[in-house]
Specification:
- The complex is a heterodimer of chains A (408) and B (203).
- Chain A is mostly helical and 408 residues long.
- Chain A contains 16 helices and two strands.
- Chain A folds into two domains: 30-150 and 188-267, Cytochrome Bc1 Complex, Chain C (Up-down Bundle); 278-408, no CATH class.
- Chain A has a two-stranded antiparallel sheet with strand order 1-2.
- Helix content of chain B is 57%, strand content 6%.
- Chain B is built from eight helices and four strands, in the order H-H-E-H-E-H-H-H-E-E-H-H.
- Chain B has helices at 3-19, 24-41, 59-66, 81-88, 98-101, 106-113, 145-166, 170-200; strands at residues 44-48, 74-75, 116-118, 124-126.
- Chain B starts with a helix and ends with a helix.
- The chains are: A mainly alpha (408), B mainly alpha (203).
- Chain A binds chain B through residues 29, 68, 71, 74-75, 81-82, 85, 225, 229-230, 233-234, 236-237, 240-241, 243-244, 247-248, 250-255, 258, 260-261, 263-264, and chain B through 10, 13-14, 17, 46, 93, 96-97, 100-103, 166, 168-169, 173-174, 176-178, 180-181, 184-185, 187-188, 191-192, 194-195, 198-199, 202.
Chain lengths: 408, 203
């Protein structure tokens, strides 16, 4: 065995790679369970790819056969119901994990210098994931699949000049139909592999800048521990908890995230009473609807997703450790999280006058959080420095301020 | 959350799932209603006659239900869609997934079947589905108290059956689920202690 490894090592850096990236990879020992969600996301990605490949063996991307083929999977394929429920629940699990992963990044300020590229590759992953989930949702060819795809592709009408052409091009026709289904199927199969490649890039960036940690300070060498076995076991325990929750839904409440209307075959002649997107798109959908003008709504929705990329510049505080040492940022973080839940509620309900008002207020709060951050963060920096910080954090902040002002 | 509470929550979920399942006798009664009444106009195309064997019907009983149809044939409505369109001005929807296709599931179906009444103009209407094109097949709108009870029982039976039909694997899924969750709880407890043991080296 050792001989074989030695043979490989002369030609390929196998042992070096395992040592460098896993067994000896230095990791801050104070990482909490919140740092385990990146690993969970990777795991769910694998679940989705594996179950998806098996589903594709039995699924038929044809508007006349798609709905029936899903029932064929559910009723006739051996353990087809299990594969499908793992996949459909997996989509929700993926977003739940990724949103938590993002919330951790925002709370602890992990997007800050020098982790901007890490954050941006993550942002790109989010966009790819959203596109994949959106296209996958068309495949069961139920009422909500069909009308969801109709509404969302229709948004591209807001493109100046070429709006109609782009919508037709996306759909492969004037309405969502068989060509839409086949292209969405094809891309839904392709995108997860792009995500896989993007994850590799995300990890290269991570291993260049290394993990942030909840203390906000750069730890001394002695405070770093090898990834294996300490974080392999910590992540595996977290995975166990995740699997229990995930599988409870898969086995005991598998329809939790499947809209009743999606158990009716797609019918282009009949619009469902309410077209409601999947839960993970609801806050953005609420923002879209809160702007009265179509183009304005689309732009607002796009910005609401993309604005996270600007965080390294919007947050102008040099105090590290994210919300931990920053009371105002912490308050803003919690208000923002609550606001997202309110937006989710708004997105799930038909736009009555009351719902619309709540939607407009919470959309305003959403954007105001980002717009106020540059000013608030600078003011807060002065405030917390005057109030006093743990010496190591204060030293780091003062050093960064001095560097920025050019008097080092 | 303490481990005890976590286990409590898991077992609650698993037992509530079990108690919600209709008993076999009810499902068999409901199957008869579905085949003899509903199937006249509605298809249940994702069900095959052989699926009734899973409900505990004997082969002879299924043979009686299917008549000249094959064991592997789907339950297609006895009326042709064109005739239905002429008669009801709509093709009655397939019922195989009805319990999943409406919010409320079996409860919705029960409320709809028992929701017929005679309105002020003397016409039959429905509380749950205004403008419904389906006739009041059990004639609940005209029934007296005793007749109503019998119809409500039939409605309960057929709703339970349609819930089964929408998800025939539910029983198997929950049985397997108990083992899978049990396994992962056991594994996770082991991982927890292993994690503690490994991290002790750092003290």
């Amino acid at each position: 065995m050792n001989k074989i490894i030695a043979w490989v090592d002369q030609r390929f850096p196998l042992t070096f790679f395992i040592k460098h990236e896993l067994t000896d990879y230095p990791t801050p020992r104070n990482l909490s369970y919140w740092w385990g969600f990146g690993f969970l996301a990777g795991f769910v990605l694998v679940i989705q790819i594996v179950t998806g490949i098996f589903l594709a063996m039995h699924y038929k991307p044809d508007s006349n056969l798609a709905f029936d083929s899903v029932q064929h999977i559910m009723r006739e394929v051996n353990y087809g119901w299990l594969i499908r429920y793992l996949h459909s629940t997996g989509a929700s699990a993926f977003f739940a994990v990724i949103y938590t992963h993002m919330a951790r990044t925002l709370y602890y300020g992990s997007y800050r210098r020098p982790r901007e590229l890490l954050w941006w590759t993550g942002q790109g992953l989010l966009l790819l994931m959203m596109a994949t989930a959106f296209m996958g949702y068309l495949l069961p060819w139920g009422q909500m699949s069909y009308w969801g795809a109709t509404v969302i592709t229709n948004l591209f009408k807001a493109t100046p000049v070429y709006g109609d052409q782009i919508v037709t091009w996306l759909r492969g026709g004037f309405a969502v139909d068989d060509p839409t289904l086949t292209r969405f199927f094809s891309l839904h199969y392709l995108f997860p592999f792009l995500i896989f490649a993007a994850v590799a890039i995300h990890l290269v960036a991570l291993h260049t800048v290394r993990s942030s940690n909840p203390s906000g300070i750069n730890l001394a060498d002695k405070d770093n521990i090898p990834f294996h076995p300490y974080f392999t076991i910590k992540d595996l325990f977290g995975l166990g908890i995740f699997m229990i929750v995930y599988l409870l839904i898969v086995f005991f409440k598998p329809d939790l995230f499947i809209d009743a209307a999606n158990n009716i075959p797609a019918n282009p002649m009949q619009t469902p009473a309410d077209i409601v997107p999947e839960w993970y798109f609801l806050p953005f959908y609420a923002i879209l609807r809160s702007v009265p003008d179509l183009a304005g709504g689309v732009v607002a929705m796009a910005i609401s997703v993309l604005i996270f990329a600007a965080m390294p510049y919007l947050d102008r505080s040099r105090v590290t450790g994210g919300a931990r040492y920053r009371p105002i940022y912490r308050a803003m973080f919690y208000i923002f999280v609550i606001d997202i839940f309110v937006l989710g509620y708004v997105g799930a309900h038909p736009p009555s006058l009351q719902i619309r008002t709540i939607g407009e207020v919470s959309t305003t709060i959403y954007f105001l959080t980002f717009l106020l951050l540059p000013f608030v963060s600078r003011w807060e920096e002065k405030f917390v420095l005057a109030r006093g910080l743990p010496p190591a954090v204060e030293a780091m902040a003062r050093k960064e301020i001095a560097e920025a002002e050019g008097n080092v | 959350m303490s481990n005890n509470k976590l286990f409590g929550l898991i077992f609650c979920l698993m037992f509530s799932a079990r108690s919600a399942q209709a008993d076999e006798a009810q499902l068999k009664r409901g199957a008869h209603v579905a085949v003899e009444v509903c199937n006249t106009c509605h298809s249940l195309k994702y069900l095959k006659y052989s699926d009734f064997l899973k409900l505990g019907f004997s082969k002879a009983e299924v043979d009686a239900m299917r008549g000249t149809k094959g064991m592997a044939d789907p339950l297609i409505s006895q009326m042709a869609p064109a005739d239905e369109l002429a008669m009801f001005s709509t093709v009655p929807p397939d019922l195989s997934l009805m319990a999943k296709a409406r919010d409320g599931g079996a409860n919705y179906i029960y409320a709809m079947i028992t929701g017929f009444y005679t309105d002020a103009k003397g016409q039959t209407a429905n509380h749950v589905f205004p403008g419904i094109k389906m006739p009041d097949v059990f004639m609940i709108a005209q029934a007296d108290a005793a007749g109503r009870q019998g119809i409500e029982q039939k409605a309960r039976d057929v709703s339970a059956f349609l819930e089964w039909a929408s998800d025939p694997q539910a029983e198997e899924r929950k049985t397997l689920g108990r083992y899978v969750i049990g396994y992962f709880v056991f594994l996770t407890v082991l991982l927890y202690f292993l994690k503690k043991k490994i991290w002790k080296r750092l003290d």
